[in-house]
Write a structure and sequence with these properties.
104 residues; mainly alpha; two-stranded antiparallel sheet; 5 helices; 2 strands; 55% helix
Length: 104
């Protein structure tokens, strides 16, 4: 995961999840107007399972709970959410994560 993070993000450290969106933000705005029967590839999510296990213990969660959080986090990145650009973006993404976690 460290190698992937270094190669694609220029950050030389390991991470828990990396998303590779299929579309740029402009294209994504149009795609999100889809019909329920539409199917399309959003992109790829790479999850570091050993880090998820470690973080689950640190956060007092089960492996499945931590994995669910990281899957939602990665999915939100695929559709254009970004917590790294601004505090507004971070709050907006955290709010959506909590909303989606409450549905699971």
């Amino acid at each position: 995961m460290r190698s992937i993070n270094r190669q694609f993000r220029g950050i030389d450290k390991t991470t828990n999840v990396i998303s590779f969106p299929q579309y740029n933000p402009e294209e994504m705005r149009n795609i999100l107007k889809f019909q329920p029967s539409d199917r399309f590839l959003l992109g790829d999510i790479v999850i570091n399972l050993s880090m998820i296990q470690k973080e689950a213990v640190e956060h007092g969660l089960t492996f499945d709970e931590e994995l669910r959080e990281m899957m939602i986090h990665g999915l939100l990145h695929l559709i254009g959410y970004d917590h790294e650009k601004s505090s507004y973006g971070r709050r907006k993404m955290q709010k959506k994560e909590l909303e989606l976690l409450s549905l699971t």
